[in-house]
Amino acid sequence: MVESAITAVIDGNTSVQEVSKVFEGLVRLERGGCIRLSIEPRRGRSSYPRVVRLKVERGDTRRDVAIDLSDQRDLFHGPDLGECDFYFKRSFEPASVERLTTDRANKVLPFGLNNPAASQGTALRMLRARARTGRSLAELATDTRQLLALPDPAAFESPSEEPAEPLILFQTRLWPESSPEFAAITGERAALLRALRSTFGSRFVGGAIPDAYARENYPELLSSHPERMRSWPAVVRRCLITVYSRGLHDSLAFKMSEYLAAGRCIVAQPSDLTLPQPLMSGRNFLPFESPDQCVAQCERLLADPSLQTEMRRNNGDYYRSQVEPAAHLQRIVDLSLSLSSGAAASSR
To answer: What is the DSSP string of 240-251?
Structure first.
């Protein structure tokens, strides 16, 4: 097999937390001897901080790849989309892609699930490159705090047969109701928290993240569990059942990746976004559309050990093939090199 060479670019405005999984996947591939990796700085500040640009080479084949990690389905960064051969989008909605011109739509592919996570080795590699982009010392100090606070992806990863307590987990942020969308999401999440806490009592884990807004407006829903990112994996791995609600802009929220990594049972609001491999109702999650339905699906799982075992196994398998950083980035690299430039539409 011919080794691939990857050059990943980071600039002075790249959102280091949101792109961390991409770099973690590449570093894991390098450690496994699968690629040669260079992380290069680009001086200046991108107008779109949630895109990672990759130069991918294998033999005589070269591809320019953009990975867009924005949670907005209808937002594309024109310069990156125009320059690249393939544009992998986290929040991939077919209708939004179809509104692009044909030549641009033919470059766009679904990226899949994302969540901020990086080993210390990856964080240090990112920081060394970031320091050469023209960032000030104060900005670099902020970058360092953000990256070193991230959990290692391995902290979430656990065998599907690992014992778990019969607990239901839902910990979430309640957003200031500054727009109809934020008000709707906060209302949905608060109703879910009330229903789960009142039904399951001591078997419920979580609540509203206790920021200033939640303390003032929802004091009865506050969580007493850790909100620090490095403490969070242990909470996830403790609980048998995890509840997922939609993210901002109807995006696929970070917690879905975390639940899959831990091989948890999942009760989830379905998403209409496209993944490279769909998460299947009844196989990877039980769906709900209301708090009462969420409670009923949690009760169903608690009462059915065989369903628990099957779902946990399915979700562990999905994580290892689709979400684990090295497997995820290897798939991006292989697909980029196997397709003709601009031929994304034929593989969706």
So the answer is: EEEEE---GGG-
Closest to 295 measured CA to CA, from 117, 170, 179: 170
The CB-based long-range contact list for 338-342 (8 Å cut-off, 24+ gap) reads 339/86, 341/63, 341/85, 341/86, 342/85, 342/103, 342/106, 342/107
pTM of the complete model beyond 0.85: yes
As a whole number of Å, the end-to-end CA separation of the chain is 26
Boundaries of every domain in the chain: 4-150+325-347, 158-323
169: β partners: 205, 242
For the four alpha carbons of 324, 326, 327 and 329, in that order, the dihedral sign comes to positive
- The Cα 136–Cα 131 span in angstroms is 8
Class level of CATH domain 158-323:
alpha beta
- Give the pLDDT confidence of 21-63 residue by residue, as tens digits: 999 999 999 999 999 999 999 876 777 899 999 999 999 999 9
Average pLDDT of the segment spanning 108-124: 95
280-293 tens-digit pLDDT: 999 999 999 999 99
